[in-house]
Amino acid sequence: MDVYERLQEAIRHLKEYEIIQGRIESAQEMAQKAGTDLLDLEKQMRLEGKDLERLDNNYLVNIWHHFRGTFDQERQKEELEYLAAKLRYEQAIYTLESWKRQVSHLEQELAGLPDPKPEYLLALKAKEDYLLKNQGPEAQYIFDLGEEMAGLETQIQEVEEAITAGREASEQLKEAEKSWSSAQNWGALDILGGGMLVTAVKHSRINDGHKRLKLAQDSLNRFQRELQDVQKLDKVDNINISIAADFLLDGFLFDIIVQSQISKAMERTRNTCNQVDSAVNELKQLQNGMQKRCAKLKTEKIKAIENYGL
After folding, report:
1. Is pLDDT larger for residue 306 or for residue 222?
2. I need a labelling partner for 175 at 20 to 30 A (CA). Which of 12, 204, 227, 262 fits?
């Protein structure tokens, strides 16, 4: 391996190491935020639970609503509010655990890699010594071309990882939308008096939608992380790419309990999916531009090597 290849390889390992370190920091920040959100949601759930308990156990309030004929209506309202708060709390637990798992996985991945800094410094010194012995614009030009190519190849891989994560998130969101659509259809039958079986199937589809959303949020978290990596790449800060959006699912989607909310859930899920698809398409355009630039550099480098010393 010559000095060019050695330094290019050392730079690639160093960037990979630094990328994982950055991912750990981002995941730790998200886990900390998720922990704070969890505490707030737990307080809200407890308050809603106390409101429901107060309605059931407070004699005067109980008598008042029975006298007005509003007890069943008021209890259903309080129960729905409690169930919605409970769903948000359970989703927050899942989100926090998901970020903790990501931190643990990334830390294990980093621990399995050798520190690339010493080899990078040695390779850099070897390159410096070589250039001092072989002064000339051609040698420097060939080296610069190879260095830029190595950087671009790393960036192309980063963009590819973001594209893959985006596609996975999009698929999960589409599956969630299918569940909402099925729940809506069964709900229509339920309203017409479909009976207990129809009601059970409708709620089963709603539960399927919630499960799909949990999987989608995991995929979206990964997509967000990959997008952050892309935004840190060199020479992409002037690209008009709409990937700065925060792909966190609306808390409303985890509150779906009654029929009237399902159509809104479908619309919001679809909008998030469209947003992800749009970002993936822009990433493809970005990657295509990088690949064309890399191919051009490769051609220039081959010609420069062929003509070197002639």
Report:
1. 222
2. 227
Residue boundaries of the structural domains of the chain:
1-115, 136-310
CATH of range 136-310; options 1.20.1330, 3.10.290, 1.10.15, 1.10.3470? 1.20.1330
Q: At what angle do helices 137-191 and 3-57 cross, to 10 degrees?
A: 20
d(CA 45, CA 49): 6
pLDDT tens by residue, 79-102: 788 888 888 888 888 888 988 998
Q: In this structure, which amino acid lies at residue 137?
A: P
What pTM value is reported for the model? Answer: 0.56
Q: Which residue has the tokens 């992409």?
A: 236
Decide: 248 and 222 in contact? Cβ < 8 Å. Answer: no
Structure tokens at 85: 């708060």
Buried b (16+ CB within 10 A) or exposed e, 277-289: bebbebbeebbee
Give 1-25 pLDDT, tens digit per residue. 677 788 888 888 888 898 899 889 8
Residues 6+ apart with CB under 8 A from 137: none
Model pLDDT for residues 214-237, shown as the tens digit of each residue: 788 888 888 888 887 777 665 544
How many Cβ atoms from other residues are within 10 Å of residue 114's Cβ? Answer: 9
According to DSSP, residue 216 is labeled H
